[in-house]
Amino acid sequence: MEVFAGMTGRADGFLWGAAVSAHAVEGGNFGSDWWRWEQRPGRVLDSASSKVAADHFTRYREDFGLARKLGHRALLFNLEWSRIEPERGRFDDGAIEHYGDVFEGLAAAGLEPVCALQHVTSPGWFADMGGWAGPEAAGLFERYALRVADAFGKKCRWWIPMLEPMHLIEMGYLERLWPPGRGGVLEAATAFGNVVQAHAWAWRALHAVRGDVMVGASTRARRFLPLNAHSAWDYRAAMRETARCNHWLFDAVTAGTWPRLAGFRPADVSGTADFLAFSYYGAEVVKFSVFRPGRLFTQVVDEGGRPVRNPQPQPCAEGLREIIDAYGRYDVPLLISGNGPGTGDDWTRCRFLLDHVSVALDCMKRPPERGADLRGYFCYSLLDGFEWTEGYGARYGLIHVDRSSQARTPNASAYLYRDICENGGVRRGAVDQFCPGWDEREEKG
User: Fold this and answer.
1) Half-sphere exposure (CA, 13 Å, Cβ side) for 274?
2) CA–CA dist 286, 296 (Å, integer)
3) Where are the domains of the chain?
4) Following DSSP, what letter does each residue of 71-101 receive, concatenated?
5) Which of 1, 140, 346, 360 has the fewest CB atoms found within 10 Å of its own CB?
6) Nearest to 195 by CA among 137, 149, 144, 251
7) Tally of CB atoms within 10 A around 58
8) DSSP codes of every residue in 342-392
9) What is the pLDDT of residues 180-208, one digit of tens each?
């Protein structure tokens, strides 16, 4: 087997796989705050609806079989809280039975589950009580976590209480592009405190039912570049955003370190992360803005300095290396929980995968004193689906989903990734077949 030098690093038990988000692919999630949010025109590109999405709720066994045929060893997914607890205090036996079947389907397909209790969406009744800024938020989530732990705790080793909660707080309370679409700094600070407390209580609930359980915290890691590299104001803005997005949550759950601007401080949250999971999609440009006190005086901009409210990160594989290096200092295992471009150009997806997987494998090969304990890599996404404000305009799937027929068709990138998963490295033959010209670009660069 010919493997590019410096690009092999296969580890026994390494979790190669893909990720999906329940609301994005399941369809029919009518009890959530996001379903209500979608109904108002102008909030989602082309007024798209998640009513059907990728119909994964009924086709999950087919999708698991496809993932296994494509060489995956694991799947990162989330349960839908609004299905399991459609009304406050009432848990739906049918939904619990369904997700029990999901776990069984994953086991039958030979896929290791990495399961989040929540991602982006919340039950409508929870939103009506103030959502994550509400006074009962952490306790309500703890009750849900206890029910999930009782039903599924022994079916899964790897758990994430909340997937990327910092991004949810930003988009919902600061940018107001997601539910609840209102609030500000004080509400965001309260939500952060509740999220950290809820994470810690969920960590304890899951640890109570399985001795070898791994319960981790999650964030959407972002690389921020100052618009003017010579401006101390822009540089500090980039550093503030890096700290807020990439480190506030991890500092709290690993060491109990608390940012001054983050509201009330829950007790007994340190040491509640057995691993850290992070997604990464690229670099964003920021500048200092005196008109943005609610965003710590920071504005995300395009390369010309024009404000951008819903930024689309630009691919930047070296940013992944920087983030892995930064997270190595926490001295706990790491999972790359989401990585991929939203594009209809599959050659671009192939190149993105090769660039980023190569960085991850290179980091794995370092000696222990310089390395990070990387345990898994999850491409986002297994399937095309409903991508929040972008609707169906952003295609992240290794597997293309036809919107009219729901037919599944693996892209060339899916077969390239299969080769990576099966061989633990990047083979020249696979590159020549699926992404011709990639290594030539590297040599010229």
Assistant:
1) 16
2) 12
3) 3-444
4) T--EEEEE--HHHH-SBTTB--HHHHHHHHH
5) 1
6) 137
7) 12
8) --S-HHHHHHHHHHHHHHHHHHHTS-TTT---EEEEEEE-SB----GGGTT
9) 999 999 999 999 999 999 999 999 999 99
Single out the residue of 254, 259, 311 nearest to residue 282, CA to CA. Answer: 311
Amino acid (one-letter) located at 2: E
Q: What residue type is 93 in one-letter code?
A: D
Question: Is residue 429 over pLDDT 60?
Answer: yes
**In degrees, to the nearest 5, what angle opens at C-alpha 174 toward C-alphas 317 and 311?**
30
φ/ψ of residue 83, rounded to 5: -80, -40
Mind listing the pLDDT tens digit for each residue in 1-43? Answer: 345 534 444 456 899 999 999 999 999 999 999 999 999 999 9
- CA distances 303 to 225, 311, 313, 314, 374, Å, are 10, 12, 12, 11, 33
User: DSSP state, 13?
Assistant: T
Separation of alpha carbons 296 and 288, rounded Å: 9
Note whether 21 and 78 are within 8 A (CB): yes
The pLDDT tens digits of the residues spanning 308-338 come to: 888 889 999 999 999 999 999 999 999 999 9
Q: Are 3 and 56 in contact (CB under 8 A)?
A: no
pLDDT at 137: 98
Question: What CA–CA distances, in Å, run from 353 to 194, 224, 316?
Answer: 35, 21, 11
The CATH H-level superfamily of 3-444 is: Glycosidases (3.20.20.80)
State CA 106 to chain mean position distance: 20
List strand residue ranges (DSSP E) for 90-157, in order. 112-119
Contact in structure between 28 and 51 (CB atoms under 8 Å): yes
